[in-house]
Amino acid sequence: MGTVTRGTTNPNRLRRMDRWIAATHGAELRRAGDPVAVDLGYGAAPWTAVELLHRLRGVAPRARVVGVEIDPARVAAAEPYAREGLVFRHGGFEIPLPGRPLLVRAANVLRQYDEAEVAAVWRRLCARLAPAAGHSRGGLLVEGTCDEIGRRHVWVALGPEGPRTVTFATRLGSLDRPSDLAERLPKALIHRNVPGEPVHAFLRDFDRAWAAAAPYASYGARQRWMRAVRDLTADWPVTDGPARWRQGEVTVRWGALAPRG
Predict the structure, then answer these.
(1) What CA–CA distance (Å, rounded) separates 160 from 144?
(2) Which of 5, 26, 127, 152 has its CA 20 to 30 A from that of 229?
(3) H or E element: which one contains 198?
(4) What does the alpha-carbon distance between residue 103 and residue 126 come to, in Å, rounded to a whole number?
(5) Cβ(169)–Cβ(17) under 8 Å?
(6) Cα–Cα dist 223/229, whole Å
(7) What's the CA angle centered on 229, arms 225 and 231, to 5 degrees?
(8) How far apart are CA 88 and CA 67, in angstroms?
């Protein structure tokens, strides 16, 4: 279920998203009896699935990755890269697995869909996640968009219950101002970057905080970013801290940026 996308991909393109997943979801993967992750819509080449396995096993040695593609030709082309812990399957948003995965990563997939289709796709994918139980919050869906070489990336993290957070991540040396990230907003938000919408207000305030932090630029772009994010916390529900900010990231609760109406 779904539509064949352009399938363009590059090695190391999703490194920022992968590092964030490993840092924030690694404990869930380690605790799971069978930590299965899905790389949904990996594209014309399987690099992102291969890299996801490597990065997840750095924090959860028993992790397995299933690459899922709706184009059968791409599945056939990926087969030579299958190995212990990595397989490829033909399918789409239905996630053709017998169980429920602990992670679904869908990068640069929904960008080619209409905004009106996003909510239904999110619900379908969230319903396929491992449910919350005991001390576990359940599986995680990470859906977002990045540029061709992974310098700028914005993604939404969702649990079985729905959207939780939005993360903005960038190579700080390439950034002129935080609102440069607007072009990489996921489909649910990219058309909402207009006056009156929360995401527009957030990026406006981020640019203002960035400008006010200009004196910190003499210490480097990282220090300027960290100061700007710290100032943002006065008015926006930032959920992470300096350890992630140093990576060129900031994560905000979904409810604060969710589209109006």
Answers:
(1) 17
(2) 26
(3) helix 198-212
(4) 10
(5) yes
(6) 10
(7) 120
(8) 5
pLDDT confidence bin for 8, thresholds 50/70/90? low
Which tokens sit at 142?
């990470």
> What mean pLDDT do residues 137-164 have?
96
Specify the residue for token string 């869906």: 141
Which helix (DSSP H) or strand (DSSP E) does residue 162 occupy?
strand 162-170
The pLDDT of residue 168 is above 60: yes
Q: What is the token pair recorded at 165? A: 């957070």
- CA–CA gap between residue 57 and residue 22 (Å, rounded): 9
The per-residue pLDDT for 5 is: 60
Task: Indicate whether this model's pTM tops 0.90.
Answer: yes
Rounded Cα distance between 224 and 232, Å, is 12
- Residue 143 one-letter amino acid: E
| Contact (CB, 8 A) for 27 and 35 | no
Mean pLDDT of 186-204: 97
Q: 83: which residues sit within 8 A by CB, 6+ positions away? A: none
Block residue for tokens 């053709």: 96
Q: Is the pLDDT of residue 6 over 70?
A: no
The average confidence (pLDDT) of the chain is 95
For residue 21 the two structure tokens come to 């997943």
